[in-house]
Amino acid sequence: MKCRFESTMSAPKAFYITTPIYYVNDVPHIGHAYTTLACDVLARFKRLDGFDVKFLTGTDEHGQKVEKAAALAGVTPQQFTDRVSKNFFDLRETMNFSTDDFIRTTEPRHAAACQALWKRMEEKGHIYLGSYAGWYAVRDEAFYDEDELTAGPNGKKIAPTGAECEWVEEPSYFFRLSAWAEPLLEFYAAHPDFIAPASRRNEVVSFVKGGLRDLSISRTTFDWGVPVPGDEDHIMYVWLDALTNYITAVGYPDTENEQYKRYWPADLHVIGKDILRFHTVYWPAFLLAAGLPTPKRVFAHGWWTIEGQKMSKSLGNAVAPDHLVTTYGLDASRYFLLREVPFGNDGDFSHASIVHRTNGDLANDLGNLVQRVLSMIAKNCGGVVPTPGAFSDADKALLATAHGMLDRVRAEFDVLAFHKGLEAIWGLCGDANRYVDEQAPWTLRKTDPARMATVLYVLAEAIRHIGILVQPVMPEASIKILDQLALGPEARGFGALGPEGALAAGTALPAPSGVFPRYVEPEAAS
Ligand code: MSP
Fold this sequence. Notes:
Elements: H1 4-8, E1 14-18, E2 22-23, H2 30-48, E3 52-60, H3 64-73, H4 77-89, H5 91-94, E4 101-104, H6 108-123, E5 127-137, E6 142-144, E7 150-151, E8 157-158, E9 164-175, H7 181-190, E10 195-196, H8 198-209, E11 215-216, E12 218-219, E13 227-228, E14 231-236, H9 238-243, H10 245-248, H11 258-263, E15 268-272, H12 276-290, E16 298-301, E17 304-306, E18 309-310, H13 321-328, H14 330-339, E19 347-349, H15 351-380, H16 393-403, H17 405-414, H18 418-439, H19 441-447, H20 449-469, H21 475-484, H22 522-525
Parallel strand pairs: 1-3, 1-15, 2-3, 3-4, 10-16, 15-16, 17-19
Antiparallel strand pairs: 5-6, 5-9, 7-8, 8-9, 9-11, 12-14, 13-14, 17-18
Helix pairs in contact: 3-4, 6-12, 7-8, 13-14, 14-15, 15-18, 15-20, 16-18, 16-20, 17-18, 18-20, 19-20, 20-21
């Protein structure tokens, strides 16, 4: 089993992965942490698999929504965005995200990229000046057609997303999106993996088949945004500004710089299902119009509800990442979010389900396995990796499952089926637990110590594989596991998986300690 870097024997392959950039009108909640978590897990996985990764996240700081939130808070938009952007930046610490870059759309590097992209589209004849009269939802920062709206209370017009719309009438630059329906359909056909999951792809294809209208891409009635080059009465539509972040971060407009050449086009934009159209219709159309390469894949995940209810400000039920981590622990939270619900589907977060996962999968299945095996080695093998004898069929079967695990997990993670990848690893945990019970090393201690040593060695090897493979999802617990196997940093990459990296008999191991505490209800604990 080889990691990708080793198998190609050339420079590591680049992998550029991005999260959406978050609106700074609100504090982060579990939904925001979820998108970045999925990217973090993939970024970590790819690094361990030998890729040269760039992992980008950041904040979307312009637009009417942010301007309004700042006014409500009684501060300037810049003061407001400085404050709220930091909350998102701090998620890196709270959730242990391994981001390589954090972009803020108020940075000068970003204005330069937006204006360069605009000019390029304009020069190629894709932008014209007109005037917009229609409906706009500030909450979504999106335009809607009359026939998409329903009547709300007090004669208000409501978008399909539930957002309130207002009538907007102002001079505006337009992007000739109407001309892009056919080219986009050809593009989707030529790149069947561009939109995932497949259900989302079908949704987008049928939307585009319905025809596209030109898109208003500038506003004049407020000024919190990037000025349109050559016409400073206008600021750019916040979605054009926001989407551009993905190329700003690799140095655009300097397309000759190392980062751009290395990382663009991005390998993967991970987004929520609510912002699919922006990423799969507008974004590729802008890039194609500018003659720039398009990202390779956009994956839209589902939404979380909390205890069966939509997360909302009015219900006050949003779960803050801080709360999640202090209540359940960092790794348990990370594991739960990716194991509980297939990525792409909607899911429900409940206290009962995270406790069930924490105590079942983590404390019982994995935690007990590690604890049992390492304590037996400490007590019965003088605290060193035991020396194995010849392997029985049962030993070989468990080792073969461990050795084949990277290929299985990689295949699942490559299509963002995190739950299936984790299920496969936990299948190995289950096999190892059954093997302990069947082999009963505690009995062998008296009857056949040499066989006991072999059994404990095989189990330590299974644990080594599990410890290495869970690193992307559980960065803290995996350190505890791998430390207890006395593995150095060079022995933790995916290149160390398989028989080549096998534990060396006789290696001294540190005293074992628990890896996953059980979750105990506070009232039961006191
Ligand atoms: N600023 C835009 C994105 C611009 S990207 C060029 C935006 N920001 S957001 O802060 O509103 O949302 C960011 C992400 O959080 C989206 O992918 C969205 O799907 C995700 N989530 C927000 N609430 C969520 C849940 N309740 N559940 C899961 N994800 C959710 O849109």
